[in-house]
Amino acid sequence: PDQTEGQENDDENDADNADNATVFAVERAANDVLDSGNCGKDAAADVTWTLTKDGTLTIRGQGATADYWSSTVPWYSNKSKIQQVVVEAGVTGLGNYLFGDCRNIDKVTLPDSVTAIGNNTFSYCTALTELTLPDQVESIGNGAFWGCSGLTEMSLPDSVKRIGNSAFYWCTGLTKAVLPKQVESIGIEVFYGCENLESATLPGGMTALGTRFFRNCEKLTDIMIPASVTEIGQQAFLYCKSLKAIRLPDGVKKLGDSAFSNSGIQAIELPEGLETIGSSAFSDCTGLTKLTLP
Fold it and tell me: Residue 23 and which of 9, 183, 186, 240 are 20 to 30 A apart at CA?
């Protein structure tokens, strides 16, 4: 055979080999899939999920995911196998309880398209040690990170406008938290039970430190209450044993019941405009030696 014919045969063999390799790759990828399905919020949201044998849960599509209860997520029976989550660009919202109680997730990758995190979305993801939220996130739901004991630091992007109740409830590994400057709404019990939290930066525009906001934050020592705050909620600093001193802004008008009860406060000056001191506001503050009344 001439050289041209030989070259044509080689080209055909190469093409056949490439086709076979493609088919093999597709088959191998299919064999790697443990389970898959839809998880879109509604008919307009084309969002799907795939869980592979290496423990990667991938969520892709356009729009928001559905909201669930802890036992109704479509990967519930395989939740212990999930080790990392990859959310691809186009997904805009993470629904309620989406990754709740997935205790082996240690890595989460989120795209800039995500603007909302639902209620209890990451609750009890105890292996998660760090998480970077996209700069477009505006809303963090109630209990979003409840019981995420592996998180040590949390800095929220300035885009966040709403932080729900108990957002970081019982995040026992958290040592430092920075809340964004432009928050418009912030709930109660945000750091309840964060027993290793040492410092927190609060947004300048907040008007009330909600009920049980820092309750049981036993190592809290560094906290500056913004000048805009007019109310300290009930039990806001209950059992904050390491908090020795704090300055209350001049605009504070109300201290709630047990606001500083069982805390480590040693001296405090109450502002001139204070109108209401709740019952047991300073009860069992055994180190308190100086209390200056208005």
Answer: 9
- Rounded Cα–Cα distance for residues 73 and 137 (Å): 23
Per the DSSP assignment, residues forming a β-bridge with 269 are 292
Query: What long-range pairs does 48-56 form, CB within 8 A, spacing at least 24?
Result: 49/74, 49/75, 51/75, 51/78, 51/81, 51/82, 54/83, 55/81, 55/82, 55/83, 55/84, 55/104, 56/82, 56/83, 56/84, 56/85, 56/86
Mean pLDDT, the chain, whole residue set:
92
CA angle 62–68–71, rounded 5-degree value: 135
Answer yes or no: are the C-beta atoms of 163 and 138 closer than 8 Å: no
Report CA-CA distances (Å) from 220 to 1, 24, 57, 242, 285: 86, 57, 36, 6, 15
Output the DSSP codes for 156-190: --TT--EE-TTTTTT-TT--EEE--TT-SEE-SST
| Type of residue numbered 266 | Q
Indicate the SS3 state at residue 268. strand
Among 235, 234, 260, 258, which Cα is nearest to 247's?
Answer: 260
Distance of CA 169 to the CA centre of its chain: 10
Matching residue, tokens 């691809």: 88
Spatial distance between the Cα atoms of 242 and 221, rounded to a whole number of angstroms: 6
Contact 166, 119 (CB under 8 A): no
- What does the buried/exposed string (b/e) look like for 2-25 if buried means 16 or more CB atoms within 10 Å of the residue's CB? eeeeeeeeeeeeeeeeeeeeeeee
Quick: pLDDT tens for 88-117: 999 999 999 999 999 999 999 999 999 999
Q: How far apart are CA 117 and CA 64, in angstroms?
A: 10
